[in-house]
Amino acid sequence: MTVLAVEDLSVRFDTDDGVVHAVDRLSFGLEQGEVLGIVGESGCGKSVSVMSLLRLLPPTAHVDGRAEFDGVDLLSVPTSRLQRIRGREIALVFQEPMTSLNPVFKVGNQVGEVLRRHLGLDRRAARARTIELLDLVRIPAPERRVDEYPHQLSGGMRQRVMIAMALACDPKVLIADEPTTALDVTIQAGILDLMRDIRERLGTAIVLITHNLGVVADIADRVIVMYAGRKVEEAPVHELYAHPQHPYTVGLLGAVPRPGAADEQGRLREIPGRVPSLAELPIGCAFAPRCPRADELTRSRSPELSEIRPQHFVACFHPGPEWQER
Amino acid sequence: MSAVEPTLEVVDLVKHFPVSGRLLSTSSVVHAVDGVSFSIGSGELLGLVGESGSGKSTVANCIMRLTEPTSGTIKLKGHDITHISRSALRPLRRDMHMVFQDPYSSLNPRMTCGQIVGEPLRVQRLARGKGLDGRVVRLFDQVGLRPELRFRYPHELSGGQRQRVGLARSLAVSPSLLVADEPVSALDVSVQAAVLNLLHDLQHDLGFSCLFITHDLATVEYLCDRVAVMYLGKIVELAPTKELFRAPKHPYTQSLLSAAVVPDPEIQRTRTRIVLEGDIPSPISPPSGCRFRTRCPVAHESAPASVNEDPPLLDVGGGHYVACHLVRPGEHAPRLIDTAELRA
C-alpha cells in the first residue's frame, strides 16, 4: 500500500542571485513498512524536498506539485489539518540532536508535549507513556532519564530521544534527515538497528535522507539518488549497488574509500569539478560538466527518467555501469 | 620503518585539562590524553583513529605545541620540543605544519589565497617579492589549483578548493612532518576522494611524514602505512595497516571495524556486527583498569584483571601492539569478527 505519493514536486527560492531551483519535478512513492533512502551530496535538494512536504520552508520558497497522504494533498491542505498530520502521522527526525531539543526543558516534558498536544493525554499518562517510549528506543533507566535535561545526555542518547518523540504518536511515516551523521560509528550502528527494529515492530514507513552510501546499503529497501535538485536514478537497493547506471552514482560508489576501492596505482576514483550552483544550472544534463560520457546531446538537452531495467529508473542518455563508457 | 632517527617521537604524552569545580564538587581533570607513545619514521604515514572524545585531536595539538602537554616528551627529528620557548620553536615550525579539519574557519577571510599560502614563506623569511609569488604559483600548481585563484578570497572558493589552499600553505615550507586533523571530514564524498588522492600523490612526490587523524577507518586503510587506534585517551592498538585490517586484535578495534558501514548491501547485510553497549565514558572519571571494559563485549573473560589493572601496550609480534588483558604474545586474540567478510 502506498502511504505517500509525491508527484512533480518543485521547489524554487527567489534570492538576490536569481531563482534557485532547489528541487525539480521530483516524484516518488513510499510503501507501507518500506525504508526509502534518498542520497546525494550537499545542495542536491534532498532535505529541502522533505521539508517542503511538511511545509516547513520559509515563505521565500515556491512549492509546486502534489503530495498525497491519506487522501489529502499535503501541499494544499489547510494549515489546521496539516498540523494534525505533522508530528502525529508524519514525524521528522533532524540531523542535529544537539540543537533540535530545547535545552531548558526536561526530556520528559519535550516528549510528553507531543503526547499531550496530539493525543490529549494528561500529565500523568503522558509521563508514563514517555517512559515507555524511552524504553522502546532502548534508553537505559528511562524512569531516571525522563527527568534529565538534554545536556545530561550523550549525542547518541539525544538522537534516541528525538526518535522517541517522533514515534510518540505511532506515525505512519518517519522522515529521518541525516539521523546518524553527527554520531560516531559505534553509536550509528545502534541507531540503525533501532530504525530497523521500529520498521519491523511498528510497520512504520521510513524516508532516510543521507549522504552516506554505507548507511543506505545497510538499511534501505529502495534508493533515490539526487543531483542538483533532480532524481537521477532510482532502484531497489541491491540492484542499484550491483548495477549502477548513472555516471554520478557510479562515480560516487567509486569515490568512497573502502576495502578494494583504490585502483592499481592506489588512487580513488575522483569526480572532477564540483556540484553546480542551483542558480545557474547548465541547459542540458546538470551532471554533464563533470561527466566522462557527456556529448553534444547531453549538453543540449536534459535527460528524462526511463526504466532501463525492471524497477530501475535512470535519467541519462548514456547509462551503463562503467565510469568511462566509450 | 627502521630509520635511524624517527621524524617524530612521542613518549608517554599526557594532557589533563582542569575543570573548575562548581557548587559542591571539588575541581577535577579531564584525562584527554593519558600516556600515549608512538613514533613516525621518515616518509611514513601514521593514521590516528578514534571516536569523538578519544583525545586524537589533543595529541595533534600537543605535537604542534598549540596545547601545552601536562607531561611526556615530544621529539621532532631528535630535538626535544616539549618545553622549548616559542621563540626557539619558531625556526622548527618550518619542519612541521598542520592541516585543519574545517576549511571554512581555518583560512583568514581577509587574506587572498595567495597571501595565505605565501605567509609561512614570508614569516620564515624564505622568499619575498617576485620569488615569493613564483613559489606560490608553483604551490598552487602542485595542489591542482589554477594560479589565478591566488588573487581570490577564501569565501569565493568551494570547500575542496579551500582544503587544497590549506594543503598548499602547509607544504609551502617543505615540512618534514605534516599533521592533518580530519582534513576531508567536512567535504562531500566526490570531493573527498580528490583531496585524498592529492595527499597520497604529494606524499609520494615530496616524501614528508604524516600524522593523519580521522574517525574513518576506511580512509586510513587507503592512505596510511601504520594505524594507531585510540580510546579514551590511550592507544589500544597500533599495527601496520594491512595487519590491522587483516587481523585486528583489540576488541575495540574489532567493534569499530564491524560498526563502519560498507557501501555494498550484499556485504553490509551479511557480515557479523558487534553493537557496543552504552556510550563512551566520561574522560573526567575514566573506568579503573582497562578503560574499554565498560563496553567490552568480552569483558567477563578478562575480569577481574580488567577492573584492577590497566593493560600495557605490548608488542604481540611483527610490530603489532595491543593493550588488552586477553591478547598476549604467542596466544590467540579473541576473534569477534571475520575481516574476510568485509571484502567482496
Write the layout of secondary structure elements.
The complex is a heterodimer of chains A (326) and B (344).
Chain A: E1 2-15, E2 18-31, E3 35-39, H1 46-53, E4 61-69, E5 72-73, H2 79-85, E6 90-93, H3 107-119, H4 123-136, H5 142-145, H6 155-167, E7 173-177, H7 185-202, E8 205-210, H8 213-219, E9 222-227, E10 230-236, H9 237-242, H10 247-255, H11 296-300, E11 306-309, E12 312-314
Parallel strand pairs in A: 3-8, 3-9, 6-7, 7-8
Antiparallel strand pairs in A: 1-2, 1-4, 4-5, 9-10, 10-12, 11-12
Helix pairs in contact in A: 3-4, 3-6, 4-6
Chain B: E1 8-19, E2 28-40, E3 45-49, H1 56-63, E4 71-76, E5 79-80, H2 86-89, E6 96-99, H3 113-123, H4 129-142, H5 159-171, E7 177-181, H6 189-206, E8 209-214, H7 217-223, E9 226-231, E10 234-240, H8 241-246, H9 251-259, H10 265-268, H11 299-302, H12 305-308, E11 314-315, E12 321-322
Parallel strand pairs in B: 3-8, 3-9, 6-7, 7-8
Antiparallel strand pairs in B: 1-2, 1-4, 4-5, 9-10, 10-12, 11-12
